[in-house]
Amino acid sequence: MQREMVWFILGVLVGSLFFVSAYPTDREIQYSAPVIQKIAGSNYTAYVLYPKNGLPLSPQFLKQTIPRLVEKSAPNAKWHVYAVPELPKGSVITGYGIKVTEDGRVDILITATGEDATIQAEKVKNELLQWSRKAPEFKPDIVPKEKIGVPKGWEVKTVDSNGNVRVYSGESSPYWHEIGSSTIHNECPPAGNVYARTYFYQLENDNDPQRNYFLAASGPNGEGVYEIDPGYGLWYNGNHKYDTYHTDTAKIINKWGLDSSIDPLLEVIKPVNTIYGHTTTTVTIGYSPFISFTVTVPDSKMTPVADRSTQTATWILDFDSDSNDAKFTFGTMVASEGSVGQAEFHDGNWHDIVDITLWARFRKHWYYHYDVQAGVKWSLKG
148 with 223: CB under 8 angstroms? Predict the structure, then answer.
């Protein structure tokens, strides 16, 4: 049977004292300490944070609190991981939930809205509690059919464009291991909503003594999506909180160059070529048997951009304003792989690994637009 505990965070939290009260920020947004509710399952612990007094959650409070909850919930895990929302001016966090398994893997749900919207605290609470009571399910390891490497007694050295030397010896069977997934939904009437669900993998048993590899991608069967819900379609279907906005343009951004101390590198992005729509194409990423997923391109095109100076992958989506893709719900998927220095990463500290963002510009007239964004920053402690 699951146990539930409610904390009104005005005092002690996991052995530490936090004082959080309503206060103005440079955006004149009022925050208050959230309610934190703990749900203990048979093989996981969930925490849900929802508004008190109808006020949004403080991003800084989450950054201070969530790592402590993760470490407390999986004290024997070989590494810890979490993600917190990255939202721009104009949006606020209305709810946050995280499920942590005994081996340190996580599943995360985040809700957000426009800063001027009324927060429906009871609705947020019920959504988070319903989600929290279902045990997290992770994708099976993606294992290659054959070993890779060099014959016994041999050694191979490679040097990349940055002068980094890698030494390989012996055969191994590297595989992608899911360590977490995140879902974030930002509702911003009257313009529209954005929704992103992404899976986060770590490469295991790769026999590379110098680098750790990570993958921000879909599931192995194409689960996960970056979704844009323009106001036009929502209004057309009877939700009159919205107006007749269409999607003008959008960007999906995977930024790996967050922490220079761990020598981050953008390795691979998919898709890598400009694709014109409306069309779909299947791409693969990772070691065989690969992660495969279907990329849907809007009218008119998707353009990938790899910026090696900042280790950032960006996919720009341009929409034909008269198309159904621009007026109604549209979803697509992309993926990127990054790596960090192994010795630098395993220093016992938390490190920011990748920032995953979906940004959309909704337009009602040629002269007026509204920008909405949903993003999370993944951090690990090895």
Answer: no
